[in-house]
Amino acid sequence: MKIRLARPEDAAGIAQVHVDSWKTTYKGVISDDYLDQLSVEERWNRWEKRLTDPEPGEGVMVAENERGQICGFLDYGIDRETGRIGEAELYAVYLLQSEQRKGIGRRMMRQMVERLRESGYLSLMVWVLEQNPAVHFYRKLGGEELDRKQIRIGEETFTEIALHWRDIARLTI
């Protein structure tokens, strides 16, 4: 397993993982109609733009399997809620279902934290759907609940939880 910074040519692989992982992670949580409408092509365009023109302090990492195929990604940058310097946000972590529970998420988190510390970030937070099994992963890493908010996905309303690490050096990875 290789973890590295993403390049613009990775957009298609990231888009495929993004859509596939949503369909498995949120099956039975988010409506099938919504999940069936997710488009790899639409996500591909978004990821291509994101990787071609990143904002300062942001980054995307990918995990490649032994065949060189992208099987996971992690996206991070400045905290979008506060915009404060030194406060980072984990925007997304997704792995194909077949690659989960193998330590890949932890390895990507470890590399992200190293990059954040080198860039002067002090704290980290992530918004995660309450029904997402990853809530337990983040709590195991020491994330503490900071806030909750309601969001709409399709025609449904969900609760998102903000988990926070005041000191990224204390992330238990």
Name the CATH homologous superfamily: Gcn5-related N-acetyltransferase (GNAT)
Mean pLDDT: 93
Provide a count of the helices. Answer: 5
CATH architecture: 3-Layer(aba) Sandwich
Radius of gyration: 15 Å
The proportion of residues in beta strands is: 25-35%
Across the major sheet, the strand order is: 1-2-3-4-5-7-6
SSE string, helices as H and strands as E = EHHHEEEHEHEE
Domain N-acetyltransferase: 1-172
Protein name: GNAT family N-acetyltransferase
Pfam family, one: Acetyltransf_1
Keywords: Acyltransferase, Transferase
Give your account of this protein's structure:
The protein has helices at 11-25, 32-36, 40-52, 104-118, 134-140; strands spanning 2-5, 59-64, 70-78, 87-95, 123-129, 144-153, 156-165. By secondary structure, the chain is an alpha+beta fold. It has a single domain (2-124), classed as Gcn5-related N-acetyltransferase (GNAT) (Aminopeptidase, 3-Layer(aba) Sandwich). Strands 1-2-3-4-5-7-6 form a seven-stranded mixed beta sheet. Strand 3 (70-78) and strand 4 (87-95) form a beta hairpin. Helix 1 (11-25) packs across helix 3. The chain is globular. The mean pLDDT is 93.
How are the SSEs placed, and which strands pair?
Elements: E1 2-5, H1 11-25, H2 32-36, H3 40-52, E2 59-64, E3 70-78, E4 87-95, H4 104-118, E5 123-129, H5 134-140, E6 144-153, E7 156-165
Parallel strand pairs: 4-5
Antiparallel strand pairs: 1-2, 2-3, 3-4, 5-7, 6-7
Helix pairs in contact: 1-3
Pfam family, one: Acetyltransf_1
Domain N-acetyltransferase: 1-172
Keywords: Acyltransferase, Transferase
